[in-house]
Amino acid sequence: MRKIALLTSGGDAPGMNACIRAIVLTSLRYGLEVYGYRHGFNGLLEQEYLNLRAKNVANIIQRGGTILNSARCLTFKSDDAAKVAAKNLDILGIEALLVIGGDGSFRGAKHLANHWSGQVIGLPGTIDNDVDGTDATIGYYTAIETALDSIDKVRDTADAFERIFLIEVMGRHAGFIGLNAAIASAADHIMLPEISRSCDDELENILAHIEAVKKRRGNTSYIVVVTENLWPDGVTSLAQILTEKTQIECRPVILGYVQRGGSPVSQDRVLATKLGAFAVEAALEGKTGVMVGEINQEIVCTELENSWLQKKPLDPYLVKIQQDLFDILKRP
Ligand code: ATP
Questions:
Q1: What sections of the sequence does the record tag as coiled-coil (predicted)?
Q2: Residue owning the nearest CA to atom 9 of ligand 1
Q3: Is residue 128 among the annotated active site residues?
């Protein structure tokens, strides 16, 4: 193999730059030329790429975002687009393409593999951690820290004003960030897709809990962590309902994009470096159609389809603890 390429796709995640650095330096170590396509799959279609050298990846390990830029590319779903990408990769003489992104990006990688004879390898880079075949995705640990820091700060106002706060965290349709940030911040209540009830049940449950906690503590400060896409009309509408029903002021806080940014924590940098180096070595061994991930401290390859076919479960013990602590708070 002489030439290898990479791109970052979907939502950016802290640690993507650390991963790019590891891929570039490992490729150079093995004497490969390495190319970075810009703006996700758009770069393949537009032939927008850079020849990456060691100097391009100096001083980036600590930076959030991605030096290659990321993007959504809806047109890439068509067969024609995949064929154009395959042709462009062949023109440049690329033999293997590494795709850093989430499950959508891996669908894109698989789609390309159906039309291209080169090797395709995925690396899990998304804050949501909703990719099977790895314990954690690159960016996930940093997103928890960012959410946690914000929740701690909101709690100061919740305590000072004796208010209820609903804090919406990211996760697409998965509760990994929500569960971990809620446990670590000692949130009073949590609403996750994996343990969600009907809206009526959820409302009844939360109102009873607020009442019990108010009696127990003698104040009305209360924090709920809610994952995005969970309450049908959004957390703002839920906050209005809770204000009316409890007569306690309830405010929504949507953390939003701050969770995707920032300097990666050490766990994300180390994971990104490990997976980046391993992906290059896997490409040199001829692997294709797989995602590299880490399970129980071992680096493993998973068929790309298996990264999205099953919903990755939350840690059941963590869910149980959260539920137990919630129940204890209700006791008089
Ligand atoms: P995140 O969830 O963190 O935002 P992601 O990789 O899941 O990351 P998506 O927006 O779902 O983000 O997908 C990224 C890109 O992957 C899409 O914009 C598109 O270019 C490509 N893609 C997604 N699904 C497909 C598909 N079925 N076929 C071809 N390409 C796809």
A1: none
A2: 104
A3: yes
